[in-house]
Amino acid sequence: MVQRWSQLPLDQALVCAGRVRAFVQSLADEVAQATGTRRCGVPDCGPAALMDQLTVMVYDASAAEVTATRPSTLVQDLVRLRHELG
Predict the structure, then answer these.
(1) Tens digit of pLDDT at every position of the chain (86 positions)
(2) How do the domains of the chain map onto residue ranges?
(3) Are 72 and 59 in contact (CB under 8 A)?
């Protein structure tokens, strides 16, 4: 996913950024719920930082055991997102 993102032309990355950002936010919300912390918005740092944000949220979801309730779904979501990048 990260490698493909780095290969995208900027215009295509901008088109896909909203879907990726929404997924990152959904992971952040799940982590907050799993850890009993307050939900907060993931800042929009632009397409250059989006894969770093995704990487951190996937790590946090794993650490918070969010994936224990949906491991195959997380993988499927990442695969679907990767395919949407083209």
Answers:
(1) 999 999 999 999 999 999 999 999 999 999 999 899 999 999 999 999 999 999 999 999 888 877 656 656 888 889 999 999 88
(2) 2-84
(3) no
Which of 12-33 are b and which e, b meaning 16 or more Cβ less than 10 Å from the residue's Cβ? Answer: ebeebbeebbebbbebbbbbbe
Token duo for residue 48: 């250059």
Q: Which two tokens stand for residue 5?
A: 């993102």
* E-assigned strand segments in the chain: none
Would you state the structure tokens that stand for residue 65, as one six-digit string? 């055991």
